[in-house]
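BUG-554 | component: ligand-complex export | severity: low

The export step for glycyl-adenosine-5'-phosphate jobs runs without errors, but we want the raw record kept on the ticket for reference. Input record follows.
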Amino acid sequence: MAEPKENLQMEKIVSLCKRRGFVFQSSEIYGGINGFWDYGPLGAELKRNVKELWWNAMTRQREDVAGLEATIIMSPAIWKASGHVDTFSDPMCDCKKCKKRFRADQLCEDQGLTLIKNAAGKFELPAGTKCMSCDSKELTEPRPFNLMFKTYVGPVESEDNIAYLRPETAQAIFAQFKNVLETSRQKVPFGIGQIGKAFRNEVTPRNFIFRSREFEQMELEFFIKPDEVVEAISGSVVTVPETGHPGEPQANWGWQAWHQYWVEERVRFYEGIGLDRSTLGFHRQTPAELAHYARACVDILFKFPFSKKDEQGNVVGDELEGIAARSDFDLSQHQRFSGKPMGVFDEELRAAWGKLPKEKQDDLWKRYYDNRKNYLTKSAKPDETPEQISQQATEDANGLAKGQYIPHVIEPSAGVDRLILALIANAYSETTETDAKGKTETTYVMKFHPRVAPIKAGIFPLLKNKPELLKKAQEVRDLLRPWMNVYYDEAGSIGKRYARQDEAGTPFCVTIDFDTLGEKPELLDTVTLRYRDDGKQERVKISELRDWLLSRIR
Ligand code: GAP
């Protein structure tokens, strides 16, 4: 169950994570369980900080986003409507000789090959593909493997009682769209954010916490007006360049501007927690890669130690977050499957529509009709006729004049665990020094941004055997504790205590010494404050310490 020893940097990171209590293998004393990881004391704090920062940035600090916390197990009808029951699968194949199981696309990729999708939509292994374990070329044809974990609700294990552990948090947001809209007094454009566990029975979990079977997501579904509605109200839809922040949201933004806005907002978020833009990459999905309902998807990548290089030798990066423009697919699906209306009424649209010239109305009507017909055709049930589809699309387009439409959605969807791994990989630094006697020692510093650092300040009395120092240090600890996570440590030399906090990634250490007690009267009630990254020290008044720290960790 150990990580494959193919990447020295990853090996060091995994080892530090265990040694310092960031991440442990789940059920380790029983040999572990593949694809499941536990967060230790430092990891739990780091994770909490990351989620708190996301929640703050995405909901509390915004007027236009509301939060949700839904259940992990929901009606299985949700997963039928979303398409997960029928299509949420990875191609899997087995080695006939050693019986090892692989994700077919990864198996090919690891050998510099590309999995083939034939005209009928079935996957085929390219010639030469071999087993990565025993080199045999006798592999089964790839077959779809649904990634959802199944369980039964209630005491009877029958087909009727099957339920799934959610493979994404997003669907609960769509299913509760109307309830949130009605109770939060929001109006489109607005978003619903959620953080929570997701489960996928990955064929081959790998790269530590990068791809696991139980993980957490931070998802925002941001609902916007369809472009035809924006045009009816604002006269036109603005286009923005594909790079750079488009600025504050405007009424004439269509899906493309909103999509670009969220890509840039998310990059700002990452920069704000210490991931420099140079550590990130971007992948704009090609039309062939896009889901049929998606208009665009930009993946924000992080350059992990295991990330591969392109032909020019540049590290490409692996997906941290995907920002997808998902059209009105999700709400439309839930409307069709549940029979409950998912559209909104917009008085502004109704009023604007009445004032539009006939040609403009016809043009917008036709475009909306075509989009609806396209969606309805692609997701038609077997018994639906083209006439029924046209009739439904006509009804939908007629709704514009009444101020009705189904919102589109932009979805920034991030993985908590992947971000934790990115932050750990980014923070990791080691220095090896040889002293005058030839003794070599390696020191580790986790250079976390103060906002995410698990411990914000180490609090040390200079000496353990001086009760006055201990008492004062404990007073400082108690002063800071309600405001931030601090760590009181009186054991060992001050150098050792600094080193322990450097490894934990604590950005500041506070030492209480004899000057604090007034040995030099002018320094009474001041402490030494040491910076983790350069070891510099300065003197700060205890009365100013809390605000000094708060201004740096928020
Ligand atoms: N609602 C859209 C959605 O779920 P996704 O690209 O499948 O999209 C979103 O997942 C994010 O969730 C990914 O960018 C990644 O950060 C995280 N994620 C997905 N599968 C994961 C896994 N097996 N282990 C850890 N994180 C995962």
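Assignee comment: Attached the raw record above. The chain has 17 helices and 25 strands.
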